[in-house]
Specification:
Radius of gyration: 40 Å
Number of strands: 15
Mean pLDDT: 81
Structural class: alpha+beta
Length: 377
Amino acid sequence: MTSKRDYYEVLGVSREASEDEIKRAYRKLAFENHPDRNPDDAEAENRFKEAAEAYEVLRDSQKRQRYDQFGHAGVGNGGPGGFGGFNSNEDIFSAFGDIFSEFFGFGGGARSHGPRPRAGMDLRYNLTITFREAAKGVEQTITIPRDEPCEECDGTGAAPGTSPETCKHCGGAGQIHQSQGFFRIAVTCPVCRGEGVVITDPCPKCRGRGTNAAMRDLSVRIPAGVDDGSRLRLRGEGEPGEHGGPPGDLYVVIHVEEDKTFERQGQDLVYATSVSMVDAALGKKIEVPTLDEPVTMEIPRGTQSGEVFKLKGKGLPYLGSEHKGDLLVEVTVKTPSRLSKKQEELLREFKKLEKSKPMNKVKNFFKKEDKAVGDEE
């Protein structure tokens, strides 16, 4: 008498394997050794049955516990061709209809009755707003085209006073089964196209579709601080579902126009301004625009071109928060391209004064000393 192989060895998994690992191992073996893929191969058929026997035990937590404790004696003496009451390949397909339906597209499970509920399709709407609207937040009304349930037939697609009839070809299952060897393949019913019902007297308004094209107005609240490319999700505002399924969602994609005053860097704003070289040298108070009222800012003496000054909390708000970014003021020092004769004289005089500074005299002194030492060498 041939001894039975260990079930874990049959499936090629460890004794600590999870349910998902056991299921994946069985599916792989079932596919490789399926009799339809290996006609007239008795060894492949035996491996197929052996894998099914192992899976039938290890997928059940109670049977698996008894098997781990007592071995084959704890789960009966069945073997390939007769385990657990399975006497034929048809019994195997019936027991594991979920596996074969999922993996091979057929099975011996219970037939579906009627069409399954289907969720409606999601919709997308592109909404363009100004930079200031994005900064402050805004509520806008949008109009979207979408299908609405037909009011004439209440969405059934059948003419008033009638109703869809059960498909006689598939008995309302939406599928028919075709024999392929020792198993059956479920295919979509060609008469009702999987709906399970047929409409013999269609609604004149929707022509049997159950929906009509319509325009719907929706109020959309744009939160303050929203960025370009952000998406807002309006649940249940997409296309209607079918056969009692939920409606889809509407995604509003935000496009923010560029601003002529500010450049955006995340939640910070950048404002570029310029001052004359005299103002940069002497310092000056300037007026800086913000998202609210303008503010006065001091340009300190000796400001260099490209310096950036920060005005805290004058930027964009963070979504869902009271905190705000900063306003960064970037200063460019302008050099005059044309000078009057008087201006040129004054600048030349300024240049002389720069050369006569005490520090420059000290530097020049050391330069002379260094040169003298070099001459001695």
